[in-house]
Write a structure and sequence with these properties.
0% of the residues lie in helices and 50% in strands. The chain has no helices and 11 strands. Strands 2, 4, 5, 6, 9, 10 and 11 form a 7-stranded mixed β-sheet that branches. It has a 4-stranded antiparallel β-sheet with strand order 1-3-8-7, with no helix packed on it.
């Protein structure tokens, strides 16, 4: 699976941004996709995830609940992350990740994902 992120940039505090991750090369089976981010000097952390299948199920880090929304239209090959009310602490490199869904899936565990994008920078000031 190939993943390509886009949509990053510089945003003012309180503003909004929308990240996209275009996917290709999927095979059959249920998948999980997620956004992670990494600020300079900090560990990569999970932001949000979504599990395909009906209905789609999503998870969010406490720090972004109510402000960020992860989405993927059924049958579409683009994962999105709508980010509102942005804060300086939201700054970092944002990565799209994909993996195969299985029992016991832990969305915060980076080892769950076998495909990663190259990242897109988000700077909030």
């Amino acid at each position: 699976v190939q993943l390509v992120e886009s949509g990053g940039g510089s945003v003012q505090t309180g503003g909004s941004a929308r990240l996209s991750c275009t996917t290709s090369g999927y095979t059959g089976g249920r998948h999980c996709m997620a956004w992670f981010r990494q600020a300079p000097g900090k560990e990569r952390e999970g932001v949000a995830s979504i599990r395909t299948g009906y209905p789609y199920t999503s998870d969010y880090a406490d720090s972004v609940k109510g402000r960020f929304t992860i989405s993927k239209a059924n049958g579409e090959n683009t994962l999105s992350l709508q980010m509102n009310s942005l804060k300086p602490e939201d700054s970092g490199m944002y990565y799209c990740a994909a993996g195969f869904l299985h029992p016991g899936y832990d969305w915060l565990n980076m080892d769950e994902y076998n495909s990663w994008g190259q990242g897109t920078q988000v700077t909030v000031s």
